[in-house]
Amino acid sequence: IPEKKIVEFIEKSLGEKIEEDHSDFYNDINKLLSDKNFENAKEVLEEFIAKNPNEYKSVALYIDCMGYLNLYDEIKTLSESLNKEALLNSFIKASLQKIEIKKKNIDGPSLEHLIDKYNKDPNKIENIIKLADKYFAKNMLDEAFELLLDNFKKK
Description:
The protein is an all-alpha fold. It is built from 10 helices and no strands. Helix 3 (38-51) packs antiparallel against helix 4 and helix 4 (56-68) runs parallel beside helix 7. 20% of the residues are buried.
């Protein structure tokens, strides 16, 4: 008996679709992202989403990729096309919130200015948060977390 027929029988018996395991796919995408191969990750995610439109984790990663590539107009267009269920999904909500932080911090004081300000008054919470946000906006995640964790220990 072909595997497809067995799966169809089980799904019919259960009354619901069996979810596929996409963990290998997500591991591959995370590897591309950690290697800063955002363009390739974006292309692979586009193909995957075309076949799995309700796999919201992949949509969130796609939004993240576009954020790394500063494709904010495309992100806006995509978010406007998403249905209510997708917009309420925790993965997608988190990705859209990250994009808002990045967009907000692209403009404004330069990184160098914020570092100087922080160095002059490293105990001022406002300086810590603004510098961490700027690091985050520039995809300097290690620096952002290191700054926050170091200062969390002090408080």
